[in-house]
Design brief:
Layout (H helix, E strand, L loop, with lengths): L1 H4 L4 E8 L5 E9 L5 E7 L8 E5 L2 E5 L8 E5 L6 E4 L11 H12 L10 H18 L8
Length: 145
């Protein structure tokens, strides 16, 4: 959601917490002044699909699995047949979150203090959103005290 819409203006969240205070299931609703919304969920106790759908005024894009490293997506436009677009394997055979680790390694080796792909402010914006979610669901870390 951050990559497409930036930092949200409104954040709602609810969760099921374990007796130890771990968020087992979390649901989030993010909103922007533009009227855009994002509905997200995560879980550590059940099988959770890793699909994503982006809906816009001219159609929708479905990432049927592994939205964090898709090998294809399906483009749906009104009045047209769905179109599957294959993106192929990632660079250097990377998958999953390995992209992030590889970019950190590249930046460190290049002497950079942040990546041009996701500048520091982008990372801080995501963390502000995650901290707001934690606040709303009541998850506290020792460092929060």
């Amino acid at each position: 959601a951050h990559l497409l819409l930036g930092e949200p203006d409104r954040i709602q969240a609810d969760a099921l917490l374990s007796p130890e205070g771990v968020d087992l299931n979390t649901g989030m609703l993010l909103g922007w002044e533009s009227g855009a919304t994002a509905l997200l969920s995560c879980s550590i106790v059940g099988h959770h699909p890793t699909a994503a759908t982006v809906i816009g005024t001219a159609g929708r894009i479905d990432l049927p699995r592994d939205f964090f490293h898709p090998d294809h997506f399906v483009l749906h436009r009104p009045g047209k047949e769905p179109e599957t677009v294959t993106s192929g394997p990632g660079p250097q055979g990377l998958s999953g979150m390995q992209y992030e680790a590889a970019e950190v390694m590249r930046a460190v080796l290049a002497g950079e203090t942040e990546s041009p792909l996701v500048p520091l402010e982008g990372s801080l914006a995501v963390m502000r959103t995650l901290d707001a979610v934690r606040d709303r669901i009541g998850v506290r870390y020792p460092a929060d005290r």
